[in-house]
Amino acid sequence: MKKILFVTSEAHPLIKTGGLADVSGSLPKAFAELSQDVRLIMPNYQALNLSGDVHTVFSLRADNRQINILETRLPDSSIPVWLVDCPEFYNFPGNPYTDGQGNPWPNNAERFSLFCRIAVICAMDKIGQNWKADIVHCNDWQTGLVPALLSLEKDRPATVFTVHNLAYQGLFPASRMVTLNIPGQLWNPDGLEFHNLLSFIKGGLAFADCITTVSPTYAQEIQTSAFGYGLEGLLRYRNNALVGIINGIDTDQWNPETDGYIPQRFNVDSLHDKTRNKTELQQRMQLPVNDSIPVLGLISRLVEQKGIDMVLDCLPEMLSMDMQFVLLGSGDKVVEQRLQTWAEAHPDKIAVTLGYDESLAHLIEAGADIFLMPSRFEPCGLNQMYSQRYGTIPIVRKTGGLADTVIDTSWETLANGSASGIVFNDANSGSLLEAIKRTLLLYRNTEQWRKMQANAMCKDFTWRRSAEEYLRLYESIS
Ligand code: ADP
After folding, report:
1. Do residues 291 and 430 share a domain?
2. Closest-CA residue to 264 (of 277, 278, 280)
């Protein structure tokens, strides 16, 4: 049994801005089910959805500030969560990383360096809990200083750093090295320095015993200049310590047989029941109710990564097709505006909901026939897996985790029972449009479509599978 400290800046259902929260809410539970001794540590944001007991386990001064370590449980589990409580850094409303306009909080370097410092103190059991970690598993740039700072400790735990998205790196002016009081020996081109900037993510990439990323294809892609953001050289150098482990999904929350958000539950043997969800979706989005018209769904942060510009370019042609398009998302204000304009002009074909809405996300997964995910890059991606589980055939670009989890439909894959979606190669609207046309043709062949749905719904996307892979990795480094 390993003592695992899982260091993260968000965890569902306490707080969530994206896929990292899903991983942080689920992987520790899978470890616990495999009899591991796992804890989480995260900042005590004001916006946390706390329930149950929260109590102080330790108080200390760090960075000249009074800090409390609070302890609670990950909801619906017995997994302890340590909350780093520093009111001036975390006790204000809103998103953990950005203000209402999407700009990073000006003191993010201070906020997350303090978080990292406290995580190190807790990992080394300098808070007297009689619990010293064997493995410290860090996630994304917000936790990047942890492996760097731990590298300076004697008898330290082994460290793993997982890249969920290399696009976010935590880059700050070099002068912060001094103001954040980071030990000078960490400042060199093989350490935290990145073109004379302080790079939090390099703390993980350069110092962790092992680097993981969330799909095998993305692990290869980030070693190339097209995906590496200038870090590809370091990643190639650390190639032997770099592995890709595909995320699982929360199969309790995303289960069409038990989903409490949808009006009609269903499984692979009662696929006709999916129709009621489609009707509900069409009603809720004020689209004409019509069972035979294919509904395309999309749920996403509206950022360039997700290829939403390609979708916008396809809309004029899509309007001439027999289909309805339902989108839920938020992000880039210009994109939001353009989408809204399209929806207002064509309310019988396009419905757009701007904002974040968990229940509508479930209804789209359950009610749509087809799911669009044309990402330019996608470290792992969750929605293409949710879609498959709900018999909603995904159209994805061949990149990262999309390439690893969706099997394109061809005569061969139909024959061998693996076809579970549509995969296209090039990141341009022409290729996406071809893929949509190809999918709509397949949709008309009901028998084939049912087979694809069944293939998709029977795939194993459990966290247990991923957790076992992580445990083998932990074993190899500790
Ligand atoms: P990323 O982490 O890059 O945003 P993922 O596909 O890995 O992409 O994870 C996104 C998660 O956030 C999924 O659980 C998805 O359903 C959810 N999500 C994204 N946007 C919305 C939204 N507007 N409303 C509800 N859920 C959303």
Report:
1. yes
2. 277
The series of mean pLDDT values per 10 residues for the chain, 478 residues long, is: 97 92 94 98 96 95 93 96 97 89 92 98 97 98 98 98 94 96 96 97 98 97 96 97 95 94 97 97 98 97 94 97 97 96 98 96 98 96 96 98 98 97 97 98 96 97 96 96
**Ligand 1 atom showing the smallest separation from residue 358 Cα:** 25
Q: Is the CB of 383 under 6 A from ligand 1?
A: yes
Q: Check residue 478 and give its pLDDT.
A: 87
Domain assignment present for 255: no
Q: Is 382 in the pocket of ligand 1 (CB under 6 A)?
A: yes
Contact assessment for residue 309 and residue 339, using Cβ atoms and an 8 Å cutoff? no
In this structure, is residue 404 part of a structural domain?
Answer: yes
Range of the domain at 471: 3-248+463-477
300 Cα–ligand 1 center, Å? 5
If residue 31 lies in a helix (H) or strand (E), which one and from where to where? helix 19-33
Q: What is the pTM of this model?
A: 0.90
CATH number, domain of 98, equals 3.40.50.2000
Burial of 59 (0-12, 13-18, 19+ CB in 10 A): exposed
Atom of ligand 1 nearest to the CA of 355: 23
pLDDT at position 135 is 98
User: Do residues 237 and 314 share a domain?
Assistant: no
Nearest CA to ligand 1 atom 15: 383
Answer whether residue 257 is part of any domain: no
β-pair partners for 55: 71
Atom 4 of ligand 1: nearest residue by CA position? 18
How much distance in Å is there from the Cα of 23 to the middle of ligand 1? 12
Domain membership flag for residue 124 = yes
Task: State the pLDDT at residue 165.
Answer: 86
Place of tokens 């081109």: 189
